[in-house]
Amino acid sequence: MKNLAKLLLLPTDAATQGGASALPSRPTGKGEQMARACLWFLLLLSFLADNSVAETPIIKPTDVDANSSGGRICFRVDSPDIRLTGPYPTFRTGHAFVALQPDTGPQKGNSGLVYGHVPEGGTLGGINPFSSKGKTEGQADHPWDYQICYHLSAAQYNAAAAFIRGEITSPSDFHLFTRNCTDWIDKVAAAAGVHIPLTTDDPNRRGIKDPAVFEGYLENLLKGKRPKGKKARLKEIQDIRDNVGPTFEKGKVEKFEGTFEKAHQFDACSCQGLDFAATIAPQKLASGLKLEVNVQTLPEVQLGVGQPLSIELQNVDPENALISMHFNNKDIVRRQPSAIYKYDHSSTFPIQVVIITPGRVNLFSFQAVVSTVPKTQTTIVGITVPSPSP
């Protein structure tokens, strides 16, 4: 399309040479006017094509020689990071992925051996985080904040490469709760025979593998804290580093950010990141995932100190919906369609309820006005979650 556009460039007036092209000022016939209109349309198509964000080509990893030193494997995490204003606006919902770095062979030095597990697509032509076909994607240009690397023997490297090749050819399914990107890197680590820090959320929350959890453990390792809940084999770790903080403010992270679009990375992998995004900018999140959006403000409720407030959701499958209920200083994010909360002092408290289903981002907001007047009967707020459009 670029070459076609060059052939169709229109002549410029003397006053506009060196600047934007302009149509001649002389009168033209209808046929010539129509021809020029078609040329402008083709140029517009060329502009749109040249400025689209193409998917990164995927490179299948090849085996290294069995007698070689193998290579490295690095597990990367892109932290949920949402800033709508400021000098570096970004909207990244969180992701975990893996990079291979062979010591020998034709792929040595190839920075394109980076892979992640994503949903292939779903409802409304957008990204379905639940019960979706999966896809192994080339992600060499995906931004990241932390990585942890391990040296692999040739046998370990080839086992990891074989697993990834198999996932490229026949991808496993994707589900936000059970087969997400973080679960996938755990499987890559198992194939490679290395032990990465915990990736699973607190069981009192969702008990789901999440990039934000993995990030937290990597951050603690950088601070010299040993991961809890799992015997992390620290002697296996070859390198761990961060790519955040001052380096971002100095602009040194651009090589990972890539284009402006890459600063707006709509991944459907992190429960914490998706929840965070839905509370701040549900329309933007829905647009990025190509889903419908439903934002409603509900009537306020009157409560007494200590009076139970019960939120009950209808028309939602908790095994295929991200549900979060945000009270004043308490988030209830268990996988169930109801929650009960009590306020211990009087004030006016904002409440947000996030429900992300296969076809829609939902955000319900209302206020609880809590007084010192004693009340004991449970106040029930029922919310019916609309079904996606057919």
Describe the structure.
- Helix content is 24%, strand content 26%.
- With 390 residues, it is of the alpha+beta class.
- It folds into three domains: 2-50, no CATH class; 71-278, no CATH class; 292-384, Immunoglobulin-like.
- The chain has a six-stranded antiparallel sheet with strand order 6-5-4-1-7-8, with helices on one face. Strands 9, 10, 12, 13, 15 and 16 form a six-stranded mixed sheet that branches.
- Strand 12 (322-326) and strand 13 (331-332) form a beta hairpin.
- The protein starts with a helix and ends in a 6-residue tail after the last strand.
- The relative contact order is 0.13.
- Residues 1-28, 38-54 and 244-261 have low confidence and may be disordered.
Q: What's the overall geometry? A: elongated
* Main sheet makeup: 6 strands, antiparallel
Q: How many domains comprise the coordinates?
A: 3
Give the spatial strand order of the biggest sheet.
6-5-4-1-7-8
Order of helices and strands: HHEEEEEEEHHHEHHHHEEEEEEEEE
What does the average pLDDT come to? 78
* Backbone CA Rg: 26 Å
* Number of β-strand runs: 17
Percent range of helical residues: 10-25%
Distance between the termini: 36 Å
Unreliable residue stretches: 1-28, 38-54, 244-261
The number of distinct helices, counting runs of at least 4 residues, comes to: 9
Quaternary structure: single chain
Strand content range? 25-35%
Class from secondary-structure proportions? alpha+beta
